[in-house]
Amino acid sequence: MRRFWIILVLVLGAFSLSLAQNEDTRTAVTPGGMEVTYPASFIATNEGDFELVMTAVGTDVVINMSVTGADAVQSRYPGSYTDATGFIEEFRTFGMGTFDGIEAITQNFPNGTAVYLTYQSLLGGAMVIAIDLPEGGLAVVEVYAIGSETPEPITDALDTWLAIAGSVRLGVEPTDSVVEGDLSVLDVPEGALTPDQMPAGQIVFGTFDVVMPIPEGWRFIDEAAVADSVALQFGSMMQATMTVSLMDTTTFASFGDWRSAMMTAFGGLVSPDGSAEPDVLERPDGLTFEKFAAADQRFVLFFLDLGDTGLLTQLMLFMEPVDTAAIDAVEEALRAAVRFSRGNGTEASDTAGTGASDSAFEADCFTDSRVVSLEVGQTATFTCPSGCLNSGGSIWGSDIYTDDSSVCRAAIHGGVITDAEGGAVEITRLGGQDSYTGSTRNDVTTNDYGSWGGSFSVAAPAR
To answer: HSE on the CB side for 71, CA within 13 Å?
Structure first.
């Protein structure tokens, strides 16, 4: 897992609370029965059957945190590990940061034995905790302090993260939060879908059965299945990232309403003095949604209340100068978000884009192959613009490329198109490879990488 999946941007100031020191706690149970106890100052939401995200309130450091357990651990962190120690050793190889000279620490909890590292990640100070649970299997807690130059924002709250890890239990009776409705049918598989299984150009949220377009210019950060939350990026990851989440509004009851809860959590990003008023935007169906933006628009929040379906939120973080087209694209996508009911098919229909397309997909320099869902051996044609040579779109491999590589830069590397003219390229979906070898061709340098679960090749379209 070479990229950090930004699940939810969390804000933490001078926060050094531990559960042992604060009896005011809450307990969340995910749909799959994973229980986690956390301080009452956090907002917790489910991201899947065995995944939880939590929000703490503060002002100084941007923090990302997730708790993953049971089968979801292998889905999110593929590897050969069998216990917490093995997981931590493999985590060092994921390319997530600098681990030189950093020793793993072992700590015993009533719920199992934990092994953890504090380190400097690509995004800032970070911590990863793996716990061998007595029920069998693992739980993993990840915490990131975005932009911090040292791990101190993490180590200052060490007791909090360890206490949360020490509270994880499996096999707890979950509550039923699935909402049914009389809606249009979308013929897609049951459960949370990976980007490959979704209709081309769409995001499907598995828990609430909501579908929305991928905003133009945005793309998936990784290929994990989407239950309630997904991370997207615009351009390079350091240009802009966005978290799109669906939340059960009843989880905010202790705050009075969802708006109070969300503004308590995130209002300081867009309005330090709390005076921000939203732009209210209209949808064709008569619903409205709200947009909060910081003065410099580096942080932008969207809220769409879908009633019983839940609250659809989008939190955008711009690391580089703001591209207003990225924000406009998100507005348009929110206007088209709708609920659906699933058909009986076990495979996605043509609407879901599982087959080869007769028309060319208009790509940009960062578009990867996963925007079109293909079975192994199927093909699709992309039309690439000129000027992708130095765009920065990432690419791994030679001749056979990882499926999250830039299609257009792979086409230049493979000699199918030129940077000056761009043009059409046909990709063929291939299976995962044990390794990918980088090289320099046609002024494009690609990267080496180890095992990765999907790939593609490039060729000139048949005449």
So the answer is: 6
Please compute the mean of the pLDDT values over residues 420-441 and round it to a whole number. 91
CATH of the domain at 373: 2.170.130.20
Measured CA to CA, the distance from residue 382 to residue 334 in angstroms comes to 26
CB within 8 Å of 247: residues ≥ 6 apart: 45, 228, 258, 310, 311, 313
**Which of the listed residues 342, 373, 395 is the one where a domain comes to its end?**
342
Q: Note if the pTM is more than 0.70.
A: no
CATH number assigned to the domain comprising residue 15: 3.40.1000
Mean of the per-residue pLDDT values for the chain?
Answer: 75
Do residue 302 and residue 447 come from a single domain?
no
The predicted model gives 310-318 an average pLDDT of 74
Query: Are residue 375 and residue 423 in the same domain, yes or no?
Result: yes
Are the CB atoms for 368 and 404 separated by under 8 Å? yes
Share of the chain above pLDDT 70, in %: 74
Residue 374 sits in which domain range? 355-459
